[in-house]
Amino acid sequence: MIARTLHFLEITGQLVWPYGRRLGDIAYRLANALSGLGDLAGPRGYYLRRTIIQQIYFTAVQAFWLINVIGIALGVLVILPMLNFGVSDVDLQAMVMKLALFHQLAPFLTALVVIGRSGTALTAEMGEFQYSGVVDSLLMMGIDPDRFLVLPRLIGVTVSLLLLTLWTNLAALVGAGIYNALLGAASLDNFIRACAAVIDPIDSLLTLLMVLCYGMTIALVQCSFGLRSRNVVELQRNLPKAFVQALLLCVGITVLFMLVRT
Q: How many secondary structure helices (H) and strands (E) does the chain include?
């Protein structure tokens, strides 16, 4: 019995240890990067602020129309089944929009878009910095790559994800409201008022925290896999690995916040 228990613990440790080590590496990189926040006001502040703005432009501004289309489609897809089943009560529609869309689908799908679009670019960029010698040059000059390369991208991706999630929800609200109005179920004004009335500060705060976790996780995972790439071949292998790990962690974050809400 004791031998079986020890064997079970050994197998469990072998399965859990790699994931625990990766989470530890991510936590260390996060703490190391955030320790450089003071550099934003220092001599390197110009480069860091410029990189943050560039990251926001690439991640948020250039994805504006894509997120717009996705948000409108989400709103229509959420409201369509309710209308097909004869649910025309605008208050009930607003509650479903709140529970299913505003705090669950919209943030997660927005994070998925960021992982596939900007996250992959982050991994490729960091991998190029690694195998081209940029990281080694920074270390020789006494500059921490986490504080100089990862920090501005971490801030840029997180801020961008917050903006994109907000816009996805707004686009979904407008799309669902217009579709509702076209079918004569409720006017756009009444639908927006009903959705605004069900907004809860606690739920909104939890969604904000969830999106912050999404953004930091995506940036850290993608940058970590890029910095592990010593050559082009390793980078090509790490691109899908980074995507899968960031996606799985975002799923875990979503489940965690769902349990907190219950």
A: 12, 0
